Fold these 2 entries.
Entry 1:
Amino acid sequence: MIYGEMAGQHNESPVLEVRNLAVDYGRLRVLEGVFLELKDRDFLGIIGPNGGGKTTLLKAVLGLLPITRGEVYVYGKTPHANRHLVGYVPQQSEFDSLFPVTVAEVVLTGCLPPGLQPFHRYSREDRERADHLMEQMGIYELRRRQIGTLSGGEFQKMLLARALAVSPRMLILDEPTASVDVNARNQIYYLLKKLNQQITIILVTHDLMAIASHVRSMACLNRKMHYHGEPELNEAVIGELYGCPVDLIAHGIPHRTLREHGNGED
């Protein structure tokens, strides 16, 4: 098992419900009228332009910021009540890679209980869990390395191990492949595919090919939700989402990105 003792029985009731969500930053409306519902073990990909509210939606689901209007339920309760059921991989840019800390120390922070815990001492079980996760992520040999020496892919695997240390039932990732090479990106998607056999995953990305190839459902977000459904894009959705024509180019094996178009037909 790649992630420790996670996830219970498969549940057909929604594990995430977002109802008429609105979020403001000061006088700026960032999200407006967002509805979203996920079932157990879904793999949702969220795409949209920069500044479209993707990270804001994730933080609302995590209970990390106040909402202006609407409701968010995670496993039937408020985000704060069930925060321990969710693992979070933020954007790499949110971490100071020059901070003097090792890979193992970062992963262990995922074992911290909620709230401020000065002088917390990790148990033997915590350390065994962290070692196991680093082995599964392929970074165990890097456990004593300073995080500033890691490649982009190694850094993301460390953050993924840290998020999994809480044994979550839902995993939320914000641009996990934005600064990694192709090989590391493929490894991360392979790990997520294995994880998705047991847990629900929400992935924010600009990688449209990843959306077409890996996720089970897709949400298109630009302040409002423009689409939520099967991971198959069309020109109308893309044009509305980005406000301009976008060409999707696939290399190698064809991807589920655009339907075939007839002359003058939908």
Entry 2:
Amino acid sequence: MNRKSLFVTIGVVAVLLAAAFWAGKAIATTGCFSDTNGHWAETFICWLKDNGISNGYADGTYRPENYITRAEMAKMLQKQAEVPPDTGAILITPGKGNWLKFLAADDIVFNHYDNYTSVVKATAGEAWISIQPSIPTVLYGRRMQLVGIDFCYQATANTYLSYALLETIASTTGDSSLSIQYSDGTDRTDQACRYYTIAPSPVTLTKYDDVEFWILIHWNAGGTNFNITRTTFVLQPTDATTAPFPDIVSPLTETNTPAQGRGSTAP
């Protein structure tokens, strides 16, 4: 066998990586490097550049017929697979039925419909309600950042949004402490989706954190509706790692011996 036949050019690698990710989808980007115009793998090579997998050389060339080394291949595969992922937005949208009232004695009722949740108070006044999503504060060992929340509602002049509060809660020793990440005390009588972002920068979460979103609704008269249509928490991964909890790092082990039946300590 010809030894050279064992080597793969970077152009072939571009096709394989792009095809693995974009199976069944068209790739149309061109003109990304000075020496790939018209090359048979041009669109695939440009896909690698567009997705940050391979950026070519400093002189603006890609040299698509060069042979690729094992080290270069490993780096490109890692970037393509993002193992663990460290880029891109993560959107968590809890169900509308997960809203809770703050005080058990509050005379409010949640009516859950297909496209919105209606909050009704029997008497005039105000009441806090909250939603506490199940979010990955750590994913594949990488800490997440809480970027903000996109909150959609339908208010009126008689039943309006009076306050919005986004907070994180850390629990390390059984007790907990909270940090207010965003607050808005403006009365809102409109129908809108408001994107509340954490300033000046996202907050990096830890394995001890969870997140809560509170709103204060004001009713000028009882029996009127405040409608909630969508609540989306926006996160993004970081490259900061965190250690797991000490009590969950031991793997399950099978304790059966050949003479025993099926055990219950592991599948």
